[in-house]
Structures are given as C-alpha cells and as structure tokens.
From TrEMBL:
It catalyses: adenylyl-molybdopterin + molybdate = Mo-molybdopterin + AMP + H(+). InterPro entries: MoaB/Mog-like_dom_sf (IPR036425), MoaB/Mog_dom (IPR001453), MoeA-like (IPR038987), MoeA_C_domain_IV_sf (IPR036688), MoeA_linker/N (IPR005110), MoeA_linker/N_sf (IPR036135). It comes from the Bacteria. This is Molybdopterin molybdenumtransferase.
C-alpha cells in the first residue's frame, strides 16, 4: 500500500497549473496572486504629520519656552503649501508645508494669541523640540518600485488594505479552480429541510465540501447527491467533465462493499488511477485518478475520511495548481500519549493551545473513530502521528482549516 508522502507526490505531479486572470481588488479576497505586486508609488505618497499640532522648522533644536508666530493652517486633504519658514497649525495626515521639518503635538504647546477668526496666532513650546519629530516621510512604508507581495500569496484582508492604499484597482490572480462534488449513497437525504425516512441520514459531506472549497477560494460548479448506481455516477462525472471541472470529488462507494462501484465506474470512464488505498487513518480506501484534464478524488464516505482527504490531499493539490509551495506544519508538545496502529499515518483531531511554559500543547481528543463528527467541530488542529508518542513528545500539527493555518509560515514559491 502506498504511503502518504508518495501518494501526495503522485498527485502533485499531475496537478495542472491554472491560468492567470485580472481581478478587481474588491473581489480578490481568498484568491492567489499570479504575479508579484510592484508598487507604482511611494507610501505615504507625501511627507505628512503624525499629530494634530504645529509644524515648525527646527533649525537644530527649538528650546522649551520658545515662542512662534503661526502663519497658517494645514488640514488633511489640503494641497502643497509654501510655509515661508513660519509655524503652521497642522492636523494628523496633513501634508507638511514646504520648508517645515518637525511637528509638536498641540497638547505640548501653550496658545498665546488667536487671529480674528479664532485660529491660533502665537504659541509657546512646553518642551524642547528637535527635527523630524512626528513626521511620516514619503516612501517610508513602501518605496515606489518595491515588490510588496509575491506571486503565490493568498489575498487576505490585510493585503486588500495595502493594495487599496497603493491605488491598485486590479490584481493578477490565478483563476478559481472549478470543482464538481458527487456524494454517493441511497441513504443520503440532501435536503436538510426534509424529514428522514427510515434508514436515511442527512448528507453532511456535500455541505462540508462546499463550505471547505469556498474557504479555499475554489468555485464549486455542482454538488450532486446520487444513488448507488454506477450508471448515474458515470453520467454525473461526464457532466462534471463537460462543465470543465478541474477537480472532481466524490464521496463514498470506494471501499470493499458490494455497492462500492466507484473504482470500476472510473476505469469504465477511462480514468488513470494514481493510487487506491493509502497507509493512513482515517481515509485508507481513498482513490485518486486522472481523467482527461481533471484530477479525481474518490474519497471514502466516512465523514472524517472526507475531512482528511480535503485537508491533506486536495488542499496541497490546490496549492500546487496555484503555484504555491508546500505548506509548513507546526510542532507542539503532546499532552495525551498515543499508541497509533503501526504502519499507518494517523490524522487526529486535537486542540492546540499555548501552555504556561510558552510552548504550544496538543491534546488529542478522546473520540477518534472516523464516523464521529462532534470532535471535528470541537477541534482546532490536526496532530499527525505514525509512531507511539509519550506525553511531552514533540508532534507535528496542522491547522484545522488549510488556508488559515496559524502554523503555516511558508512563503509562496518564488519568494
Ligand atoms: N470489509 C471492509 N469494509 C470496510 C473497509 C474495509 O477495509 N473492509 N473499510 C472501511 C473504511 S476504513 C471506510 S472509510 C469505509 C469507506 O467506505 P466507502 O467509501 O465505500 O463509503 P460508504 O460505505 O458509502 O460510506 C461510509 C459511511 O459514511 C456514510 N456516508 C457516506 N456518504 C455520506 C455523506 N455524504 N454524508 C454523511 N455520511 C455519509 C455512510 O452512510 C457510511 O456510514 O468503509 C469501511 N468498510
Ligand atoms: O478510513 Mo476509514 O475513514 O478509517 O473509516
């Protein structure tokens, strides 16, 4: 039976690279940059005040108690002004009048006189003041021409802030991968608003995969629930192919039972099987294949096998399709000793928290049977284990969701 690393390598060799498209920055959340982003401007774009106060020319140092006539007032949004070397009232974010090089906060001054219109006319400094105080300089955050984000970066709200500040209305991103989901099983009730008939269960794999793919920035073209007939399954896969799916993900009917028709149906369709059965738990009966331009994941129906398939097989393939490097896993100290079955890599639902010793601590949840969904809803991380681990051992951890993993510190490939 193939091991996890070899299975992943086989998949990554067949992961197609997706094309680049232009995208409005407003729609770019969750998408992956196809090219480096180069700043076309300085940020800040002009020298401006960091405080409400008075801009002055320091001439070395201005003494505490020195008095200054106030020539004018500069607010955020006002254009360039010549200062004539005199003090100016200034607001936070306002452009520094030309010739002035320092700012005193208003509360560190005494107002001595006002103009007729009430604006300040003369002030006294409460403290000595040197040059360059409370001034934010042009280009001090981002210099024009600098690479501010690398190809392969997934756009999060913090990136949107920078792109907007740089006036970038559009970015070049990798197009969203198209995904078709097929849930098999005549026991499945896909309509959550309907009551269950005898022997039925609510289908949870479909809604889970739709949610997970949405959070991965993929486009789910279809999510269909089919019965246990090979013919319906084949027709659904063919529809997914015609719709241009890059990934076809099925759940169920891939193991040893009499109704487990998926492997035969895929070979009937001409799919080239990369592997069937991987030395992991849960999710051992998983099958992956190449069918035309699409990669097919035939995941076992058991809910935790689906979660493992999504997290540790499909998510890495999506990264490769978008030109991202492999994800880095984290490490934590194990609080709950484990005796995993020999020869299998185990993916265990866990909670990971910082301990009083400043290290991350992992607690593997007690109920790990693959049909149990509740521990998955309580977990915030995965623990990966192939060998016995005593309490206090360092173990490999991964964030519960792929794209928000706090442990992933990899930079995109090419960075
Ligand atoms: N004789 C053997 N039986 C089984 C083996 C084995 O090696 N020998 N492996 C077991 C393992 S491990 C797994 S995992 C399952 C995988 O079976 P299938 O992929 O054929 O999946 P199904 O039988 O269709 O379903 C398994 C389980 O999951 C429930 N299910 C299915 N789809 C959904 C859905 N959309 N939402 C929620 N739950 C779903 C289904 O009702 C079953 O309970 O095989 C073992 N058997
Ligand atoms: O691989 Mo199965 O999910 O262990 O039950």
């Amino acid at each position: 039976m193939i091991g996890y690393n070899d299975a992943l390598l086989a998949l990554l060799r067949h992961a197609p690279r997706l094309e680049a498209v232009r995208c409005a920055t407003a729609d770019a959340l969750g998408k992956v940059l196809a090219a480096d982003v180069v700043s076309s401007m300085d940020l800040p774009s002009f020298d401006h005040s960091a405080m409400d106060g008075y801009a002055l020319h320091a001439h070395g140092t201005l003494a505490a108690g020195s008095e200054h006539a106030v020539h004018g007032s500069q607010a955020a949004g006002d254009a360039w002004r010549a200062s004539k070397g005199m003090a100016w009232e200034i607001m936070t974010g306002a452009r520094m009048p030309d010739g002035l090089d320092t700012v005193v906060p208003v509360e560190r001054t005494e107002l001595l006189a006002r103009h007729d219109d009430g604006s300040p006319a003369r002030i006294r400094l409460l403290d000595a003041l040197g040059p360059k105080a409370n001034v934010r300089y042009a280009g001090s955050d981002v210099a024009k021409g600098a690479v501010v984000m690398r190809a392969g970066t997934r756009i999060e709200p913090n990136h949107v802030m920078l792109l907007a500040a740089l006036g970038m209305a559009q970015v070049e991103v990798i197009r969203a991968p198209r995904v078709a989901i097929i849930c098999t099983g005549k026991e499945l009730q896909a309509d959550l608003a309907q009551p269950l008939a005898d022997g039925q269960i609510y289908g949870s794999n479909g809604p889970y995969l739709v949610a997970a793919f949405a959070s991965l920035g993929a486009h789910v073209c279809s999510c269909e629930t089919v019965d246990d007939s090979s013919r319906t399954f084949v027709a659904t896969v063919e529809r997914a192919q015609r719709a241009g799916a890059d990934l076809i993900v099925s759940t169920g009917a891939v193991s040893m039972g009499r109704y487990d028709f998926v492997p035969d149906a895929l070979s009937e369709l001409g799919a080239r099987v990369l592997f069937h059965k991987v030395a992991i738990r849960p999710g051992k009966p998983q099958l992956a294949a190449v069918l035309g331009d699409a990669v097919v994941f035939a995941l076992p129906g058991t809910p935790m096998a689906v979660a493992v398939g999504l997290r540790f097989f499909i998510a890495p393939v999506l990264r490769a399709m978008r030109g991202q490097g492999p994800e880095a896993m984290g490490r934590a100290v194990l609080d709950t000793p484990q005796l995993p079955k020999a020869g299998l890599l185990h993916f265990l639902r866990a909670t990971v928290m910082p301990g009083d010793d400043g290290r991350l601590h992992a607690q593997v949840l007690a109920q790990q049977q693959p049909f149990r969904i509740q521990p998955f809803a309580q977990a915030n991380a995965w623990v990966l284990l192939s060998d016995d681990a005593v309490q206090g051992a360092w173990v490999t951890i991964a964030g519960l969701q792929p794209e928000t993993s706090p442990f992933d510190r990899t930079y995109p490939s090419g960075a």
